[in-house]
Specification:
Structural class: alpha/beta
Helix content: 25-40%
Order of helices and strands: HEHEHEHEHEHEE
Strand content: 5-15%
Length: 167
Amino acid sequence: MTTAHRTTAPAGHPVLRTPPMSPPASPAAAAAYFSAALAFHTDCSDVAAALAADDGPGFVLLDSRSAEAWDQGHVPGAVHLPGGRIAQRAGQLLDRAVPVVTYCWGPGCNGATRAALALAELGYQVKEMLGGFEYWVREGFAYETAQGAASRVPDPLTAPAGAACGC
């Protein structure tokens, strides 16, 4: 039996449940929240700058997507470890003393989040690269495919043409 679209959400539905309108958080609460967010996340531009640094990035970049996705395109220098294999292979590929930055397809995919969780549960220091491979490409950074190196013109909605973000 199918049902028509509902016009009201079921009581307590987690997707649609929102708190009542409230004022912004206190400056101290906001500072704590945003500080914590930065402890867990980084972005494509900062990762690209770190990878290009003369003294190295100080972390391992991990692509948690499938082999087919990896072949379609990945960040140069990334380690390929599909999320479903992290528990079995992380110890062979990663050093627990070196932080890990995870990425997957993009903002519509939580594979990097799941990979970061799996690594944290195994004792790794970890951050997630916001935007994933999609925004890496959209910001115009070079990438590798099964056929070789590639790049695209930056999308002006994600990166300023010919300039650093400046965030």
